[in-house]
Amino acid sequence: MKTRTVRRISQVFFFCLFLFFVFVTDLRYLKGYPVSLFLELDPLVSFATAITTHTVYMGLLWSLLLIIPTLLFGRIFCNWICPYGILHHFIGWLMGKRRAEERERIESNRYKKLYSLKYVILIAMIVAALCHSLQIGWLDPICLFHRSMSVAILPMLNLFFPSSVYVHQYFHVGAWVVGFMLLFLVGMNVVIPRFFCRVLCPLGAFLGTLSTAALWRIDRDPHKCVDCDLCLKSCEGASDPQTQLRKSECFVCFNCIEDCPEDAISFKFMPQLQREITAPVVPGRRAFLGALLGLTFYAFGRASGATARNYNKKVIRPPGSVAEPEFLERCIKCDQCIRTCPTNVLQPALMESGLEGIWTPILNMKVGYCEVNCTLCGQVCPTGAIQRITIEEKTGLGPFVAEGPIRLGTAFFDHGRCLPWSMETPCVVCEEVCPVSPKAIYSREVTIIKRDGNPITLRRPYVDPALCIGCGICEHECPVTDEAAIRVTAVGETRSRDRRLLMDGGVTSAPRALESKQR
Amino acid sequence: MAAPAATQSRTGNRKTFRRAKVSLLERGISLFLVVWLAVIGGAIWLKGKHYNPDRFALNPAALKSTAATVEGKTGTVRAADVAPGETGAAAKIQTAGQSEATGEPAEGAATAPAPAAKGAPLEIKLDGLKPMGDTEFYNADNLFEKIDGRAPAYLNFNFQQLRCRSFSVTGTSGSFVDVYEYRFDTPVNAFGMFALERDPKGESLAFAPDGYVSGMGFFFRQGPRYVQVLASDQNAKTLELAKAIAADRAKNLPADDTGLDARRRLPTDGMDPASVQFVQENAQGQVFLKNVFQAKYDFAGKKLPFFLMVATPAEAAAAWKSYQDFSGQFGGKVTALPDVGGAKIFKAQNFGTWKVIYQREGELGGVVDADDETPARAFVEKYLAGQMK
Amino acid sequence: MKSDPDAIKAGVSGDAAPGGISRREFFIRAGATGALLAGAAAGGYALWQPKHFIPGFVPEKGLQLPSFAIAPDKLLPSLAIAHGTEHEATVRAAIGALGGMSRFIRRGDVVMIKPNVAFDTPPALAATTHPETLRAVAKLVLEAGAARVYIADNPINSPTGCFLKSGLRQVADDLKVDLLYPDANGFAPLQLDGEVLRNWTFFHEPFKKATKVIGVAPCKDHNLCHASMTMKNWYGLLGGRRSQFHQYIHSIVSDFALMMKPTLVVLDGMNVLMKNGPTGGRLSDVKQMNTVVAGTDMVAVDSYGYTRLMERDLAELTYVHKAEARGLGSTHWQDMIYKEVQA
């Protein structure tokens, strides 16, 4: 069997595996499947989060499984495993130049200076990471592909084939941006083959840098070579095998070996390096500008104050999330949490948490609510932006009774909109659906004289801030659907000491002890 | 796939090169890699089968843990600076969603009442009366819901159950009579409660020795029950019906005077009936004076408080001795008096007032707090001689 | 970009061995790759966090403050009351009655003086420590031989404004002592076994080197806890979301008596903010009481202040009773050895 054949089998396998994971990230099918495996294998994710958090979170250690082959063979990931790369490869083959336009195909696969842009992007992202701001999620291929699938593609599928993906149709804020971004990047394969992989991919840049030290490399025997350039015909990486191979660009696709009529190209163990351009070529000035961009992205973004006192009340993070500055160090915007959430409450943020928080998950109670006995988002989060908490930890049961539940925020009444408070109409759906016991919403009976002169006995609801966990089902079920009469805002969340409302719970649990003594 | 001949390619009609030489090493490695892919697929499939169900659903065993911290908690208990009584009030908030009490309710927590034990409905068959609503039953747990602040006193006397019902007076607009039957554990306790609420200006009732009418209400004690019949207004017809109801109740409710011997023994001559009282324990601050009946008497132009208690002869004798010893303390003057009617007597002066105490078999009693010793002694001796009714 | 024939030919003719590399090169390259591999594996494993944590519920360890109190003296008074019309003279009289500042401060001590600078109001409104009182205390400390004096507080209003408008910045400049502003680096978590306060961010910077601590507080009305005197003064050392304290204010103020064991507290009763505190705002809220109280027991000093200077019923002041019940001081100042002098 030829190596290229195995490569094709591998591509089919991993692409199908990726689609399988994406589809199965649903409470009905999830079981024990490691649906975030691609993200955990992604070396850029573990490397960048190691820089920002000084830890390698749980499953991210798996990325060693990819770093090791890269250090041995080069960028095999890009053509054998990466589902995004496989997608581009496939679209490029489908929509690209026809087989007969051989010369044009050869020209399109020559190395261009533009391809050094991905290194500049990588430098910008690494510098931002050094400043404790994680921005690799914008362009990391696995993050991007997961995000596009969760936010745009799967809902699109469900729109055309109802109930194929979800029970109820899912909607995501800003889905059009994500969708068109994917369309653009995939469509650019018509202009430049493997446009994303060659020009933009920071993971490719990272692996390319690592592959400088690879032991097995594509080697062209100059004695056999007749300079026909046919090796370029299907060269995926644009690594110039016809002259001095650029190892950092080579995708190890083996197409050049297949295409060379003189059998001059081989995959060799430690070949001569003089026939190569070993390291990536990045112009110094561009590199500096990249670094500057990374630095200022963090600095200007953070100085805009969205994570400090002027925090947006609507930045309600999923249960188990770390405090906001740390969240922005960990979230890779892969939107796996958004995919798995059973109520569609998780939405990609736009500017609510500032520039750094774009596409990170926040709760929107108009669309859904946080189901109490559910921690799916934390189960699939690969970086620990949402910690892998158990249901017992979330609800404050079992051994965590003393700690109390995790609170996402607090609900507040808008009396002018509330039916029993201002509209002489009985309701208290909010109290009915409040899931904690004792309920965080309680009501007091009051008898008023209505406008028509008749008395009516109503129950008027109140919130007990010590019990409210901010799940938002009250807001979700409130009949005033355009802007609910009870709304959850971020204050009172337990993940952040600064944003606590009451002096109880969490570390300062002394008042709880005091209360239990009084009881 | 365009036909090679159709285009002017620089490579001419050359067929696409296909590599044919595939070394054994290459074949071997390729096969090895395909096997690896299968292994990966299998591993993922296996991983999918093994998962912890607690990831997806709450383990019910965790619910048992909430006992101490959560159970019984009805609401926020706020600052430590608030007095405990007030925190109880703060927590007493009725929630619509809350059903039966779960386990031990916290102090002051408002929970749904445990349903009172039912009994036979209150039926009164009299002309001109029609039941208005159902019979209500209340027990010690929820008595306060019916009578509010009066409840604690009732509970002190071991209140058992209240059976009450309202009856409308036919032919009137809005007149009705409320009937309350409070059952206690003993006739003595019923009497104690009755006596406590007694209106000094009430007039006695013919059909109930322990009873009186006052304003719009008829009150009496019968057996272990304290009955109140309250008319809604002063209409002649309403009052007449109320009285009839009271008489009917007195006739139909079981009589029982157990433990009220001491009450019976109190002489009636000169007694102010409204002053009869029953003290369960620590009467006059003395631990040995229990189940004491006392009343005030007009005697020889003076108001004399007289008490008596009935117990076993041994207890009575011991109590008499203790009382004598006590009176001798704090500079009191104790003098033994000659026996009258088989009873031992002593008199004592403490802090300016006189007491004359006797003990005859199981009965201990006497006059206390008298300004003058002569009438006090005369009263006691007259009583002991059997000359007082 | 055709291939570069010269480079290729150069490569070809430069072969040490046709088709192979030198052994040296082999070892270097293999070594480098191997080192990178090992480094990645080791680094990854070293940083590995195999267990998750629950954000917001991670127990924190904080620092604990030592006691700054001096050994109790059976003969010398522990409370001194001085009456006078002039700030400096009255302060000197009060401290003198306790035995002089040298009873408390040794040569070489690093002394932290904690005034109450919570608001950016002028001294005449009596909402902050009076500059003349602070000046007197600081002078006495310097005369006693202190090596270094720090003045610090974490105000409610902006720190720069507060220190300037209260006149305390001028005092620091005149006496050439260090004024420490509460910047973000100066805070560290404090641990306490308090009734309500367990772990809270604390302005630690001035305490890093301090050997003695003196609290200099004004005597003022407080809308929530009735009065702010020497016990409440320590509130100014805490950071973070202090506004949550108001949910348990009396317990927390009594926790301050546990948190801080100062060398000495001075209650400035020269001008007392009798109502509309703690901010005040009108001269008519202020009453001249011409008294300075100094002592080692802040509960006793506050008890005196509330009854004699603010002329109120001590039963209202829940936090002193809580502190007394917890054994952190005594409200019965009359039963202690005290001295009352005229300046």
Short description:
With 389 residues, chain B is an alpha+beta fold. Chain B has helices at 24-49, 67-70, 84-91, 143-147, 151-156, 187-196, 236-252, 261-265, 313-328, 373-384; strands at residues 129-139, 159-169, 176-184, 203-204, 211-214, 217-222, 225-231, 271-279, 292-299, 302-310, 333-340, 343-350, 353-360, 363-370.
Task: Please provide a written account of the structure.
The complex is a heterotrimer of chains A (519), B (389) and C (343). By secondary structure, chain A is mainly alpha-helical. Chain A contains 22 helices and 11 strands. About 1% of the residues of chain A have low confidence. Chain C is α/β, with parallel strands linked by helices. Helices cover 30% and strands 20% of the residues of chain C. In chain C, the strands form 2 sheets. In chain C, strands 2, 3, 4, 5, 8, 9, 10, 11 and 12 form a 9-stranded mixed beta sheet that branches. In chain C, strands 6-7 form a two-stranded antiparallel sheet. The longest helix of chain C has 24 residues. The radius of gyration of chain C is 30 Å and the shape is elongated. About 3% of the residues of chain C have low confidence. Chains in contact: A-B, A-C, B-C. Strand 1 of chain A pairs parallel with strand 1 of chain C, so a sheet runs across the interface.
